[in-house]
Amino acid sequence: MPKRLIILGSTGSIGTQTLQVVRDFPGEFEVVALSANTQTDILAGQVKEFSPRAICVSNGLSEKEKVRELARRSGVDLYLGQEGLTQLVEKYEADMVVVATVGIAGLVPTLRAIELGRTIALANKEVLVTAGELVMSEARRRGVAVLPIDSEHNAIFQCLSAGPREAVRRLILTASGGPFRGVTREKLRNVTPEDVMNHPTWKMGRRITIDCATLLNKGFEVIEAHHLFDIPLERIEVVVHPQSIVHSMVEFVDGSVIAQLAITDMYLPIQNVLFYPRRVANNLPRLDLVSLGSLTFEAPDLETFPCLAYAYEAARKGGTFPAVLNAADEGAISRFLKGKIGFADIPVVIRHVLDQHKGQPVRSVDDIREASLGAHRIASHWDAP
Predict the structure, then answer these.
(1) Is 281 contained in some domain?
(2) Range of 63's domain?
(3) CATH of residue 75
(4) Residues in the chain with pLDDT < 50?
(5) Residue 48 lies in a domain
């Protein structure tokens, strides 16, 4: 039987590549439902090709009539707004829910999918950054697998098969270093949004590319790895690896370091998760180590890029601090893209918001929402002195 998929965020980078895997392996998957944020034209093409039973448009409500016409013409059920994401999960049977949305909009449908026993293919950072303890405790309680699509976490997931969990000494997350590796803090003051988007190895969405440039994305990945793999923060390390060929590593207590290497293409971790535990041949280019010549590693520059340290700090404090870190970053990036602050001001804004926050335990999604809204509000109104 084909594996039934609900894909939340089907029009974004991960969503479209997930559908490429589906396209490349006919008969292996059935697309049950799709959701888009605002890109309704792309969604229309996906509906025509994959014939889902239902769709959701969570934010493009200015095009409601256009979307309703699409649903009528295609014979699919239509849901609107962020609550529609959860309705897709609740009302349609699926073997796997691919969470490729951006922001905490993916949190509630992920929790609901776990409650219903659906396997989670997770590509949404905010789900675990803001609510990792809630999500993973519920997944463990229900016996639900949370399979990571993010290349670094997928690499660790694969490496962990080399030994029992109690034999793990540390996790080693690799970072490309972004477009400004080796640049001084002074030179960062003149960086433009166009400069930031010129990532040396990956083509990604706007926010994640900016987060890679500040190294906060790697900080978010540390928090995710802490929750996903139940490893203490002090045993999760980051090394800068500009070639982005070693996607991450696991060191075991006997000194063996197991690494996962591959070309820089998100197709691979997506395929790994969709087919797990099977390994299936594909037509991607193979890794040519001789042509690469050398692979290098270096320590991250925390003085120039302090956001990575802020992520460790927020994770150690726990409670609402990681959610506040995420919201402060979101607000600061919005200000940067509007030209209200400089690139070098992003960590300054985040530091300011973290210092303002008192911290609360996370008992529910509402605690996360409340803390996030307050942090975003402060960050969105910050002006350079």
Answers:
(1) no
(2) 3-148
(3) 3.40.50.720
(4) none
(5) yes
Does a structural domain hold residue 139?
A: yes
Residue 269's pLDDT is: 98
Chain segment 238-253, per-residue pLDDT in tens: 999 999 999 999 999 9
One-character DSSP codes across 34-45:
EEESS-HHHHHH
- At 342-367, the pLDDT tens digits run 999 999 999 999 999 999 999 999 99
Question: Is 174 within 8 Å of 262 (Cβ atoms)?
Answer: no
CA distance 4 to 7: 10
Closest CA to 79 of 61, 99, 57: 57
Which residues lie closer than 8 Å to 362 by C-beta, 6 or more apart? 131, 133, 134, 319, 320, 323, 368
Written as one string, the DSSP assignment of 149-212 is: -SHHHHHHHHHGGGS-GGGEEEEEEEE---TTTT--TTGGGG--HHHHT--SS----HHHHHHH
Q: What is the token pair recorded at 299?
A: 């320590």
Tell me the three state secondary structure of residue 237. strand
pLDDT of residue 102: 87
CA–CA dist 129, 219 (Å, integer): 9
Neighbours of 69 (CB within 10 A): 12
**pLDDT value at position 203?**
66
* Residue 341 per-residue DSSP state: S
Q: Are residues 82 and 199 in the same domain?
A: no
Please tell me the total count of domains within the chain. Answer: 2
